[in-house]
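Feature request, filed as a ticket because there's no other form

It would be nice if the structure record came with a short human-readable summary line next to the tokens. Right now we just get the raw output. Example of a typical job, pasted below so the devs can see what we mean:
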Amino acid sequence: MSKIHTITIEKAGSAWASTDDAINALNSGITATGVVNDLQTQIDLRPVPEVTLTDQVLTQVWTWADDADYTAYKVAIAGYEEVLETALTTDLGWTFAETVVDA
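Raw output as currently delivered:
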């Protein structure tokens, strides 16, 4: 069974003009946390997302072909996902919401 994985991302005070601006700001924020991670490598292994920016809310939607691929991704980032998200939200003003549903 496939999975649809959606993450919505906001940043206090953002003024992004495009999805590229938002993604670049997020990547800069990830770097600024100092949390050692291989997230970029893991991102490169995900399906290409559908990305939208509406009212300063960045939404990324990935459709995973099967549960095993999604599970392997979550296992690969488990060592730093929570620490990274906490650093982004607590220290840098980001907010995240995530849903995963069977497709």
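Something like this underneath would help us a lot:
The CA atoms of residues 27 and 40 lie 9 Å apart.
The mean pLDDT is 92.
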